[in-house]
Amino acid sequence: MLQRPRRNRKSEVIRQMVQETYVSAANLIFPLFIVDGENQKSEVSSMPGIYRYSVDNLLREVESCMNLGLKSFDLFPNIDESLKDKYATESYREESLYLRAIREVKKEFPEACVITDVAMDPYSSEGHDGIVENGEILNDATLDVLGKMALAHARAGADIIAPSDMMDGRVGYIRQVLDDHGYSGVSIMSYSAKYASAFYGPFRDALNSAPKFGDKKTYQMNPANQREALIEADLDEQEGADFLMVKPALPYLDVIKLLKDNTELPIAAYNVSGEYAMIKAAIQKGWLNEQRAITEVLTSIRRAGATAILTYHAKEVLLNKWL
Ligand code: PBG
């Protein structure tokens, strides 16, 4: 045998020398859940180790992440049912929980990268990502709300706006609104290939944002489709996106790879709540080795072609020095 691939695996030094993929703090984005009130920190029951923070505790959490070198955060609000309405008006009210949180984080930690979620669902009385009329999700009317929300986020100091709603034309619409108001420097990370996935369940528990009727299949993508992701990615690129996102991550590594091969834009992947819950449940049962399972998942997402990973594991991998 002339070729013996095992020779390149014979020692730790050689294995590291030929290692192709790395995950570092710089690649990680930490999603954080926020809730109204003071001194609140409540664990999400389906996501052990993940909490909803009031703004004061959010600042403490951000500080401890910053000290670990974790500097990018994606914020998601848990909104009181009484503030929800058909047009998600709470999403752009000046004194709302979310806008206050963005302002406070940017004031205390100007060097942190704050990513904001643009979608109606946490604020919608129907729990959908668009305006509902006679049981239908309206596309073009929703763009107006998304534009107001994105502009409010930019004014509050968001570094990157991340539309997760899957309405057609929203990236171009938001880009235009931002540019028209002098925010041409604010980036857009588009959820380009966002699938109608079972793996968002724990997130909807965290935010109490599950749809009140039906499902999200008229706007989120069919898990059976790959080529359709190219249509979405092309449109988002033409409309001015700075990042393209694939979501969820682990069941869609082929889609990450496909987009990587078809665009020069950086790809982000969202290792979603259900992926986190699945790993944590197996670890709690003693069925998986925690460090090895988590680092393998993150490495695989990078290997498939993701530049950035949104993951609930972000803090623990740094805290435990697993990378
Ligand atoms: C909603 C939104 C969802 C997630 C991020 N933004 C859920 C959904 O579409 O219902 C899911 C994230 C996760 O599961 O971790 N716009």
Automatic annotation (TrEMBL):
PROSITE patterns, per database record: D_ALA_DEHYDRATASE
Active site: K194, K247
Entries under InterPro entries matching the protein: ALAD, ALAD_AS, Aldolase_TIM
Annotated pathway: Porphyrin-containing compound metabolism; protoporphyrin-IX biosynthesis; coproporphyrinogen-III from 5-aminolevulinate: step 1/4
Swiss-Prot/TrEMBL catalytic activity: 2 5-aminolevulinate = porphobilinogen + 2 H2O + H(+)
Superkingdom per UniProt: Bacteria
One GO cellular component term: cytosol
Keywords: Heme biosynthesis, Lyase, Magnesium, Metal-binding, Porphyrin biosynthesis
One GO-annotated biological process of the protein: protoporphyrinogen IX biosynthetic process
Listed Pfam families: ALAD
Entry binding sites for Mg(2+): E232
EC number(s) stated in the UniProt entry for this protein: 4.2.1.24
GO function terms (MF aspect): porphobilinogen synthase activity; zinc ion binding
Family listed: Belongs to the ALAD family.
NCBIfam families in UniProt: PRK09283.1
PANTHER family membership: DELTA-AMINOLEVULINIC ACID DEHYDRATASE
Assembly and interaction partners: Homooctamer.
Protein name per its UniProtKB record: Delta-aminolevulinic acid dehydratase
Name of the encoding gene: hemB
